[in-house]
Batch of 4 targets.
Target 1
Amino acid sequence: MHTKTIIELAQGLRAGDFSSVELTQTFLNRIKQYDTLNAYITVTEDLALQTAQAADLKLATGEANLLTGIPIAQKDIFCTQGVKTSCGSKMLDNFLAPYNATVIEKFNTAGAVMLGKLNMDEFAMGSSNENSYYGAVKNPWDLNAVPGGSSGGSAAAVAAGLAVCATGTDTGGSIRQPASHCGITGLKPTYGRVSRYGMIAYASSLDQGGPMTRSAEDAAIVLQAMAGFDPKDSTSVDCAVPDYLAGLNTSLQGLSIGLPKEFFGEGLAPDVAAVIEAAIKEYQKLGAIIKEISIPNLNLAIPAYYVIASAECSANLSRFDGVRFGYRCKDPVDLTDLYVRSRGEAFGKEVKRRILMGTYALSAGYYDAYYLKAQKVRRLIAEDFKRALQEVDVIMGPVAPSVAFGIGEKINNPIEMYLSDIYTIAINLAGLPAMSVPAGFAQHKPVGLHIIGNYFAEQRLLNIAHQYQKITDWHQKSPKGFE
Amino acid sequence: MENWEVVIGLEIHTQLATKSKIFSGAATAYGAAPNSQACAVDLGFPGVLPVLNQEAVRMAVIFGMAIEAHIAPYSVFARKNYFYPDLPKGYQISQMDLPIVGIGHLDIDVDGETKRIGITRAHLEEDAGKSLHENFQGLSGIDLNRAGTPLLEIVSEPDMRSAKEAVAYMRKLHELVRYLGICDGNMQEGSFRCDANVSVRPKGQAEFGTRAEIKNINSFKFVEKAINHEVERQIELIESGGRVVQETRLYDSVKDETRSMRSKEEANDYRYFPDPDLLPVIISEEFKAQIKAQLPELPVAKKQRFKEVYGLDEDNATQLTSSRPLADYFEATVAASGCDAKLCANWITGDLSAALNKAGLEISDSPVNYPRLAGLLARISDETISGKIAKQVFEEMWQHPVSADDVINAKGLRQISDSGAIESIIDGIMAANMDQVEQYRSGKDKVFGFFVGQVMREMQGKANPAEVNKRLMAKLKG
């Protein structure tokens, strides 16, 4: 049951082949069986079974939609009322959110069954899921490798069949890179497509929630539930949400695909390059035309990102001060002691590193040289993509320069870790939608194809991914031991 | 002192009179139980986002138009970063580089002269909460009801040259924001508070001296005292060979002195940057036109109109236009009574204002509303009662919800103008006081008042005074 698509499961629920309670129980059992993966921070077993029961009633009365009764898991960055929302941090280990994120509300309304909250890098800062207070997550394809990050728990859970689908968030690649490393389909929507209300902020101008699923078709269904304008999020965009499923079968005849030469240069592992080139060939078979393009300022993306994201996070994380919620140090002697020890004891190394970088970048005398300069670079990069997307319909390339690396391999070298996000980060700076689609293997580990589209072109991206998945079966492979 | 010139600029925080907070739906009413008016957004919970209250924007634009300022077509909210327990997010959402209201001005009157004070800018921001340091056994309490209350910070140019001018500017601004209906002006509740930047320089010197900023002064009296004290301190310091340092000072109203809070070196680096959670505020020409059409008549224009249309003198016109509700009350009374505007003005600035002051009430809470006052004035006008009796009737109306006619009828206060009745009383009094009649007739004019008093007493004050005068004069002359 754990490898079925959402549509297959929805049909099974309606045909009475199984109930949502049975389906939910299957997944709860698998979560227990494979808990060494460390994909979940919290499993909400009772709540899941209650929701499944309610879903079965809805299914019986015909009030259900595609997601009713479908077991889903949420990245632990989305606030869930009455359920621990840790954001992967000791700081929020005791935090029961008093409200639901808009995304959670939408899934609740749809009748989806929440299995639990998924592991992640602390405050979504990381590319390996090793920065979690709750420990590293293992990659189901290689238990010694990282699943990627920051949505590592989400990617591992979906790949191992511990949830039908999951949510992730992507600030610099945090949906796409783990999706690529775990062989699942991940979509980062256009900035503003999905509400950020109740999604704990890392870098507000870059953060975007999206689906992490077993296929483009599933992603279409999950995104349909997540997307839309939210009056509680001023940066969400009020534009109509198309019917994503309805767009999946458009022909790709004549589709023009741009391959930025900067995506295929130095630093890209040859075995990954080979997988991407093979995938491009499949698209040519589907009628696509290939064109070489250029994103000249791509090499500036990483420094610009680490200035902007760090600056924003240095302010976003100021609210964690030990005063109103979250961790508070024992017996503070005065206000400074309360601040210094509460934050010092509860934030992890990477979070502290980024708060310090951001504070520095915004300081008097440095602001122009760092923050303002980074904003200028950001505009240049966005213009590069705008120009490229006037030439071609979509852009393709690798998601990550190599396959999943080993646990512990890069954790003491932050610069090398940062460089592994070279292809994904620029997309967040530009605010564009992009996907990672399973395209093959290198060293027996999954490789994702990166598909980047124009603003609000999610329907087109899903269509392009779906057409590929109709002629390939990479997305249907299951890791050994999790079949 | 006479060798020094004082330079003052004021930053005034006006709390905008919106129903809900600037970035959340929580109520802004004053005096609620601690933390009962703070929602997840005000408390800075993880994941919450601010949504701008359009009413606060409207009010800022109204203010900008009233001071003939440039309204920014594009303004930006920024985060001002600092840690304090009553600042829930660890940053205040404010405006830095691109404020909503640009350069404008306000004219003040000091010693009969009109002076134009430049206004540099006015920007929107959220207020912080309150820290409570008493009754917590050595700990501090935090009340976040005020957190997120909308403020308009109005920054003047350093154009004022005395504490008196600073007070005049502050009063004028206070009057204006209440006129515009954008601030309740309640200074005890902190709805209108002031920081003063003060410096001195030798007369004739072009450059400004080093300034000190005096924080959080919440009354007109204290502004004057705090500035005067600070000026003295700076002059004494310089004259004794010292140097003023740039710093923030606090005014202690009990000791009547200012003392240092923190120096420039200790000042925070607020690390302002644009708030990525909020979109830039775009003000269209259409929106401005719409606001302009709704702009109320401003105090200066209203005063001029009161003088021209109603023939009021400077004092009455100034007093009646000092607040919009008072001016409205006056105009409504004139219209309802059909009486001479001066009579209305005298009553409102006289007996009514005195009674309100005594009871500590605002015009909007007056026990005698305008239709009832108009009813009273109409009876003065048509000579049913005298002005003196009217005071007695007013007293009754203040205590009880009755009309002037009710009081006049119930107490039989109707004025007697019947000359026959008055004459017969006069005859009786003259007969009983022949000595005084003789005195008057021998040229002692003062005795006339004695007769008036006697007649009025005999008639319980109800005689028409004009008629009494006329008849008495005729009879006494013989």
Target 2
Amino acid sequence: MKMTPRVVLIGSVAILFTIVLIMVVTPYFTVDRNPSEIFRSRSEIEAAGRKIYIANGCVYCHSQSIRTIDWGYGAERIAQSGDYVADHPILLGSQRTGPDLSQEGGEHPDDWHIAHFMNPRSTRPLSIMPRFDYLGVKNIEILTTYAQSLGLKDADDRMARQREWKEKVINAYEAGPVKNVEFLHAHVPEGWRNIPNPYPTSPAGLARGHKIYQDFCIGCHGPVGDGMGPAQPYIYPPPFNFTLLKNRGVSGGILYYQIMNGITGSAMPYFKKDLESEKIWEVGNYVAVYFINQSDANEAPRGIDAAYEPLLP
Amino acid sequence: MVPFSNMLPEKNQTSLLFILTSAFWMAVATFIGLLAATELIAPDLTRGMGWIVFGRLRPMHVNLVLFGFVTPGLLGAAFYYLPRLLKTELFSERLGMWTVAFWNLTVLAGGLTLSAGHSQGREYAEFIWPVDLMVVAIFSMVLYNFVMTVKHRREKTLYVSVWYANAAIILTGLTFALGNVIWRPTSGALTGIPDAILLWFYGHNIFGLLLTPLAAGVAYYVIPRACRTPLYSHTLSLLGFWSLIIVYTHVGTHHLLQVPVPTWLKVIGVVDSVGMVIPVMAFLINIWYTARGHLGEIHADVSAKFVFTGTIMYFFVSIQGSMMALPDVQRITHFNNWVVGHAHIGVLGFAGMIALGGIYYVLPKVLDRPLHSRFLADLQYWLVLIGMVGFTIVLTIVGLIQGTAWLNGETVYRVLPEVHVYYVVRASLGVMIFTGALIGLYNVLRTLFFPSGEAAS
């Protein structure tokens, strides 16, 4: 083959042209462009928030692309092409230094997001996300509006639930500590309310609970459990003060249920994706022993003690 | 530019200025990478400084490495070898020098706009529309100079490096304009899934149609010269050249295997990713058989050492890339630091090492005096090599930890403390790479403008 300038230039461009036809133009005209059942278009303010998201490179650490093999946040819905029909540009992302945000809308109430953008470590102590306080409060609010729209119609449903319960938790908080504790306990299913913590208190278990508390809880509830963590100024109703629970009918089961399921409407997230069963019992007992000073660990009804549990004196 | 050009020899100024450009932006771009790596360890370090927040540093790092360091370094060599292979002069040194000036302006404008938060948010296509136009303009200026030089050649046969240099510039000019959706100035994007398909078609071609052919062109020139032996096979050059253009342009969809794009497109992406073995091995067998029995000469010549090491890295990055396109492997490697490691073997280990080799090959030839310091060039070689290899090993470990943990149901947040220590090691290795870049810049500056007394005598 004789490689003349014409062969090199025209030949390579002709090949490129053909392959663009196959790899770009054909899919462009044949992909399914029908909106999916969760699709809705974005409001002006949500679109403005998306611009802030792009300008500050959020896409380099957060994907918006849930796969069949995912378990984490957003994994309730596998991404479909119809979810993206208005995305311009599409922001699938290529790395997960932070969680996927496909379904972030309504996972948390607005005040949690504001606290998190001001200082991510105030709500998630191990986070390595930068602080976005440099954007200013107004831009953070716009960005939050965008975050709360992720998941489109599904996000709207979750946001409606957040707003409904936000009103209730604020009313309960403002009714004073006694009423508030009653309200919180009343929404734990009865079976859970009657279960004591099944694991006995042990120094090792408390040490593990302490570690979990520092990694997950300290930002809101604070180092002494009084709800005065660094996120407190941004959150309403403010983070719960555990010392109020003494002699008010708390149980290991109540603590477990609230940690596992979160309290929708308040800034308390669910931790069932982050923490396995034993970790939740142990952080619950840590709170009970150190902050409430009242633990029901290993009380009746106990069932058969697990093999590794220490014998009681 | 005027005071500089007075200090440079009368010929090959374009080549020398591209080399200077490359050495300068390598120092800047590796520093930005190091700063970004440090922010992953200490996120509050740069609190309140939006212009260097991680999300802005990351595209600055990538684009400055691609368009500031690697491409100009490889072009510096191309502007040197094209006239020699064609037995003529460069068509226009004047145009060439304006190209370099405008090139630096483009890279600067791109970096500053990204830092100011003006981004189109698509990986490798972040530059906003005015900068996109500048990129197309500088590629057109280079192409015009190349094509006119070829036209005025006195050597009838075109050597393989000439094919690669010309094809790289014209194909990248076209795919850049297409991939940046240059007809849509406000967004530079399509809508929905087709945008992802176009983006990764373009994104992978920055590597396949720009860095790879330019680096192959330099290797095809430097290795036979350093070995003082003819190229092993013309047929393999032909096979490597055409199969590169045909196969590489099909692989972009392997970035979208876990995304709802048409299955036939994924199948093409996977099959052609494995098929990349053909252009890769055609090139490598050709280079390595040329070098067979001449490793002593290569080891003795620091430029050939850089280039030859680059070809070895090309082997690793390509085999790894073919493997990563297999869906079962990608279940672990996607979305995590494994891919970041892969990108660093490719861009720094392969194309970057060859760009550095090209720089050290051209400088003494053009200036007709030895490098300011062979020792410093060697030191830079080892700093970059150890930094880059160590970096890749660490990031591969991080990727495996993240990928397997996620697959087993751990949340991203839970895995963060597990990988923290590796981020620290990674940033330390980044210090080695940045130091190597500074040493290289010093060596280039001294060689160009302030030759040591010993060399002058």
Target 3
Amino acid sequence: MNSKIILTDVEGNKYKAEILFTHFDYFFSKNYIVYLIDDDLLASSYEKVDNKYIINNDLSSKEYDMIDKTIEERLGEAYA
Amino acid sequence: MRKLYFGTTNHKRSFFDIKGEKNLINVVLNKDQIIEVLNNIINKDITSVYILENGMTCVINNVQITLNEEFLNLSDEFDYYIDVLKTKLKKCIEKENIKKYKGQNLKVNRNNKYASKMIIAGSLVTSIMLTGLGIGLSKNIDKDISDDKDILASDTLVTDDLDEEKDIAKESELHEDKISISHGSSNKVTMVPFELDGAKDTIPSDEPTDTMPTDNATPSDEAQPTEDVAPSDEPTEEVQPSDDVMISDTIIPNLTMGNPTYNLSGSDYAFAFEFRDSTDTGKLQATKDYLGYYIEYYAKRWGLPVNLIMAQISQERGGIENGTVHNPCQLTYIYFVGQTFTAPVYDENGFTGTYDTFTVTDESINTVEGNIMAGLAFLRKVIDNNQSLLTGLFLYNQGEPNLIFACQYFGVDINDYKGDQNSMKAVELIKRYTQTVYGSYYGDQNYLTNIFQYLELDENGEATLTYYLGDQEITIKINNTLVKDDNMVRG
């Protein structure tokens, strides 16, 4: 599936990533994006600032737990 | 299968029925037709999705719909329907993404080695997924996607790589670049080679080159003679320019581009285009008769070429009724009202060193004078920002910041695209950007030639545009190669 994006860090380095899904979590009240870079499964929160999507990689362990659980749920859904 | 195109016109959503053997005809749907179409698809499953470069195609209820990115991000009275459609598209995409990893034990890598903050560059799918999420949040319809298992039909077709998607787009013949409106014009246009030095090197080659020359260009002598343009009595007629007329992008051969100091017959720059002559349709004359006083006054006062502004407003304005016209500069009120402009003041000796400053109000923009003041001050600002008359003129239609966005998007230095000597290169880059990001229907891609059709030309098919940039007077010649070719044939 084509959900490819380019991530640019503050130094201008670009990374090709593939989005798996996005998720809004009511508990944390934040938007999250789950994506792959070179088969490395990563998750970040994101927000829209000045028409740009800024992702934040500093997640707490509870946020990671939530993401893992969400992936499990969605994997289960994909089996259905 | 019925084919629809959900695109944009002047930043507003537009709905088209795609017709004809080669999908070359599109018909704008009216409000009742739009609602009928949306009601027919809104409760149905998406059976396939194809991702295109600047849009996507999906099939719902045996209707093939191509959507461009800007359409999805706009807002209007049809938001309810479009939001539901976006949510369905988002879920369709996400489920397929997850399905790829069926059987794997996916855990997020918590040791993220990348920078703590990164920006997501433009991507249609990103936009859909992220904006779709926002919709889900605001309308609480994305709370539990497991309840919506019926959304994805079993025969959902999703592509796995970009090449395959391009092939599918090609096969479906629904790529936006192939869709054009036919006005039944018999104009034939020669597509002359793109000769701008350096332009090919700086514009990414992997982007579609739909405005580039074709090998099977028709000979120029097939061009419709200007005498065939039926004259009519202005002011009520709205002359519709032919969509066939393209900018030739050819610089007159004896100019050396990239060197701003050359001189040609007393002009600083000269550019050749192909466009029909509509000066005898009555529209230009009506502009002069009813709006000419204010156009001439403010164009001269702010150092703009009077003949070009007459032509531009002839192209922009609607019909004149009872000696007046509403919004002759076709300004977007929400952008202009409240904005303060500062324009440099010139007289016969050049720059006076003073400036006019004024704020556009609800009242002023609805007067002919106030509207022309705002339009010309805006044009003056865009020209100054880009140091180019023609680039500024094109951005008046395409959107003030789009050269900046285009340079950011393609990763090129904007300084290489500023200045009159780079104006055609800049126009090409802006076109490439807006077509890539917003689709082929963005603005008026032939805006320059649609204005030039109202320029009064000399016997050689040339018009001279004189304007000020800073304290420097600059002269630009616009040559209509159709007149030149026609004279050569007759000669």
Target 4
Amino acid sequence: MADLQGLTQLFAHEMAARLRSGETTAREIAEAHLARAHATDHGLHAWLTIDDERALAEADAADATLAGARAEGPDALAALHPLHGMPVALKDLVSVKGGQCTAGSRILEGYRAPYDAHITERLRAVGVVILGKTNMDEFAMGSSCEHSAFGPTANPWDLERVPGGSSGGSAASVAAFQTPLSIGTDTGGSIRQPAALCGIVGMKPTYGRVSRYGIVAFASSLDQIGPFARDVRDAAALLHAVSGRDERDSTSAPEPVAEDLVNLPASDDEAASWLRGKRFGVPREYFVEGMEPGVAAAIRTAVADLERAGATVEEVSLPHTDYGLASYYIVAPAEASANLARYDGVRFGHAVTDGADYLADYLVTRGSGFGPEVKRRVMLGTYALSAGYYDAFYLKALKVRTLIKRDFDVLFDAGFDALVGPTSPDVAFRFGAKLADPVKMYLSDACTLPVNMAGLPGISIPCGLSEGLPVGLQLIGPAWSEGVLMRAARAYEGVTASADWRRVRPHDLAKLAGAGLPTPAERIASR
Amino acid sequence: MASLTRADVEHVAYLARLGLAEAELARLEGQLNHILDQYAKLAELDTDAIPPTAQTIELENILRDDVARPSLPAEDVLANAPHRDGEFFVVPAILGGE
């Protein structure tokens, strides 16, 4: 397989340096990643669409812009975004005009987006090259990618295990060196949990940080878009590229974007020195019952590393954490049931006409177009919002949401720079392990969904291995603290730069390059 | 807290416009009740004096100027139509009679 030691093994900031020095071109970079994605994806199934033609045209355009800037002089060159010419994968719920956008659902199979999402426009404007679209749990509902209507994605660390979800394809593609960067969405943990399970960096920004115009909606008071990358500097640069106000999403906020995001220190020592005098809280409730001991141990070690680098760490309490799951699983399905009402088989998407009447058409279209998890959530949401239950369920959940948010406010008002804890209570689990019991699957997100309920930013970064599989460290900050969180995460990278676990690559990368590998769905079926 | 009977499940499926098979209804009855059991935990909290949070970032209404601008071309919108007739989406008759 092409390019095993070449471009695809680099961080985007390393490739960007080579691009600017003229050692390589955006086209070569795109070609190397497309070739690797094609060659390694059969057994991984991270992608739903790879669009070579579009990607290469965008790469050529990026090369032309770069040539123009070079001719113009150093100022024009410096004005190019740090990610100019770098490849990205988009979760398959981001609209790219003319391209298929399925949200992992049969009901949108064959649907072609009539316009670009805001972030698609932004990425194009800064010269980022879109390689294609990645697999996901249907309508972003799930924590394992097993709820994709197009078959699950595997984890490059162990092909018998899930990559996490819902943005499982985006995380797996980055971990498998098919792309240095990808975009996901996070409604209850759908960026941070797969980042943790795949051993990469993933951030859910503050609610309102990134415009969701052109993104398939799941739960509108919770959904947020964010970046995946193999290091913090790349993730920060990608967040920078997509952040900011867009009047077409009225919830996107007019808050300034931290310019810090593109100026994180390259030096590990300089990055680590930022920690001196910083104050972190470790929520005791995040060490949940049933947590894997190896995960708890890795988190404790990470906390000790932060302390050794000069930070103050105190145990703190988020007393309403335990109510996060129940309140989230009212709010999110309620909003989903409303958002998914639009899939009616009239204007777009899967449609079954049995000829009887419009009602029969709705029933059969939606009944055959949605998968089991989506049906479950639409049912839950419809029930929670139905006459006589609104106060008992939805209103109650919104009040509990206030309590959850206040827990965080109290700590940040008391001067904590960030909270530190696990992203997920366990490492990547085996296919099928949590499919039979929806509540067990929902518990994967016990430490991430309170952050969505409170609208706060959170990042997951690799912090070691438990039984050979990656563990994610979650950092949570006050609203609009993305710059600080990225600095803190970069500092942790600096502190642990020489740790042994940083040198361990996903175990099954070599297998992926082999011929005749079954797809994850085939592998599961043959068990 | 409330629990769902089979008839409730069928009613909610109807409200949600989901046509479900017998086996799906049976499975959902069990799963939904299991999930509803988790909701019972919320009753532990006295929330009478707590205001609801529907939106977390305390944005005030943001208004933009009401300026006419081009919308998508009809052809682009109709391109995804499962059933179309010229410039129209085709749907079954909603009012009775031919």
